[in-house]
Every structure is written in structure tokens, then in C-alpha cells.
User: What shape does this take?
Amino acid sequence: MDNETHVTNEQPASLQARFKDSSQSELTILYSKILQQFPNVRFGFSTKKGGVSRIPYGLNLSYMVGDDPNFVDQNRERFFGKLGISLDLLAVPKQFHGDFIKIVSTPGVYDLCDALITATPSVYLCVTTADCLPIFLYDPITPAVATVHAGWRGTKLKIVEKTIKKMIKEFNTNPAELRVFIGPGSGVCCYEVGDDVARDFDQRYLVRYSTKKPHLNMKLYTKIQLIDAGVKDKNIEMSEYCTICTPSLFYSFRRERLNSGRMMGVIGMDK
Ligand SMILES: [Zn+2]
Assistant: This one.
């Protein structure tokens, strides 16, 4: 039995070479200062670094982008293993750029939703991104956690504000107590949008660096939604990273298109 397991785990020589080549970089995970203050909260956000997938995929964690699923399995084991989270405790949304929000109490794959909320310990909520904003919320009083996926559509739909309203309705969450981390995503430095997208946004979220197309400031609009929902400024942490102009650390759909891998972020409460 032991022998059999050993043989199954062994890689063919050609695979080993690729494995070595693309995993030269050390596993790199981003953490949040604001969430780290709570020892019962488990949180991490992946980068490209430290995976087994062939170039350009690296530490890609999505099965949906053309990467070899066996490599994705190994990448997920590396990332979630480093965080001490068992893969069978993940709640993963099948995101579709809408504003459906689900309250969950068990791990699993959840269809057609871009935000998950749980008050159940040991259910670890995920969000998958390349340029869209990943947003992580923690209510230390209830306690409860939530993840939100917001591209320009979700931002326009105010999904993060709606998620907080749902937490208030369901758990009587006090927004003034919420701690929020806005992860790496398209920065205003690079996120050029067409006039069809721009016309849906207030001028204060649009920057025109030249006479060319405007740039959308999704991070600012997300922060304003949080403040409008009652979150305190001091309880919001925003990643400075722009995924589009930081190719050493992040995948970017805008930059890489079809060859873009995906990062994942995860948040949950230990028992
Ligand atoms: Zn940028």
C-alpha cells in the first residue's frame, strides 16, 4: 500500500523538469495587517510565486483558465496547506460579475454568486481574481466573515455595500465594527475603460491622464461604498498593489488575456 502511494506521487522525468523550472520562486502569500490582529481569523492572498504549473501559470489556483488540473490541485495544496486550511473546508463561489450574495454554513462550490458570508467557524470563504477587486470582511462581534468579488460591473452594482446590508439584516452586524481588507486589483494607474463603461460612473471615480480613454478608480469607489455603509476609515486596509503593473507578483487578465492564471484569497474563523 505504501509502495503504491509512493509510485502514484512520483512524477515522470519530463514533468519533474518543468516542476523544478516553474517552482524556483518561493511560495509567496500576502497577509493583511488589519485581519492579522485577530488570532482566530485565518486569511491569505496568493501571488504567482511558488507554484508547480508551467509558465505562465505558476501558482495558478483556477481550474477554468486552461492550466493542467493536476497542477492546480498541487498549487491549491501548497497555498491552502501553508495557511493550515484543509481543501475540504473551502467555500468557493462560481463568480459571474453580478450582485448575488449567499449566506453559507457549509463548504462547497456555490453557483452564480459573487459574495459569500458565513458565521460558521471552519468554513473558509474564497474569492478568485486576476484584476477584479477581492474584498474581505470580518465582523468580530457576531462573529462572521465575508468575501466579495467586484470588477467594474460588481462595483457599479455596489455589491460590497449590499453585502454589508445583508450582514446587518441577517446577523445584526454593526458596520462600525467591521474590519475590511481590499486586496490587489486593477489600479487607477492602469485601468483604462471605454466610454460605455465610464458613463456609468460618477466623474470623481474617473481620471483622465491624457485625452485618451478615462481610467476607473475602483478601489476608491469601493472604499466610498464601505464608508457609506458605516465602516470606519481606520478599519479599512487597502492593498497598494495594482495587478496590471505588477507582473512579478500577480496575474492580470487585462495584461495576459487568455493565458492569465488566477489568484485566490481566503478568509475564515477557526473553531
Ligand atoms: Zn497599475
Residues 187, 189-190, 242, 244-245 surround zinc ion (CB under 6 Å). Residues 69-83 form the longest helix (15 residues).
